[in-house]
Amino acid sequence: MTQPGQSDYFANHAKARKFPWTLYHRPLERDLARFLAGVHGTVLVVGCGLLHELDVAPPGVQFVVADVDARAVEAVLEREDPRIVEGIVVPPEAALDFPHRFAAIYAKEVVEHVLAWPTWLTGLRRSLEPGGQLWLSTPNYGEPWLPALESTVLELVARKDGFTRRDIHPTRFTRRSLDRGLRSAGFEAVDVNVTPTRLALTAWARAPR
Which of 16, 46, 130, 144 is deepest in the core (most CB within 10 A)? Predict the structure, then answer.
């Protein structure tokens, strides 16, 4: 995949709240807002992007943001929102290792880009306080709808923008494989669901107490 330039990078993130991209992203944002409503303490955002969901976060929650792309971290910090207390650039594929633990972690549309995902998921669990909560989302490859869209319409859109979606998601989960992966990483109370559009998966889980 050709890496988009900076202007394309921000344009691609901005699409999340424009039709028809909302058909995929809006169910994720609604489920994430429900997750954040029950969180108290500091939240680690892994793969922060442009942090669109900050506007639905409840008051009193603080955020540490992490991303492999320094542009994303810089853009989020430039918002100068007092709820964002730290920004961290993390190396791709490295096991996550932070100096302190968090009350909650969420990673929206990240795990499908990680080849060493078992180690990555274990790093998420180790980054949580005992009993800490995890939320993540990922494309749903357990049904035919998303692969069909990716190989046709979405690929045409990508090529028009100068890149390809081929191999954009090296790790592809079904509902069953994501459930199994989270449990193998040591998570408890794992609950994986398919979004109403059938295009994505959302997962809630908890670190052992």
Answer: 46
Q: Which of 47, 48, 85 is nearest to 64 (CA)?
A: 85
- What region, left, alpha or beta, does residue 123 occupy, with left being phi > 0 and alpha being psi -120 to 50 degrees? alpha
Report yes or no: 102 and 42 within 8 Å, Cβ to Cβ: yes
Looking at the chain, the number of H-run helices and the number of E-run strands are 7, 7
- Check whether the bond before 20 is cis (ω within 30° of 0): yes
Q: What is the pTM for the complete model shown?
A: 0.85
SS3 state at 175: helix
Q: Could you tell me what percent of the chain has a pLDDT over 70? A: 81
Residue 133 token pair: 């909560």
Which of 4-13, 73-82, 150-159, 183-192 shows the lowest mean pLDDT across its residues?
4-13
> Is 127 within 8 Å of 187 (Cβ atoms)?
no
**Chain segment 53-64, per-residue pLDDT in tens:** 888 888 889 999
Domains by residue range for the chain, with CATH: 6-206 (3.40.50.150)
Residue with tokens 């290792």: 97
Give the whole-angstrom CA distance, residue 128 versus residue 22.
30
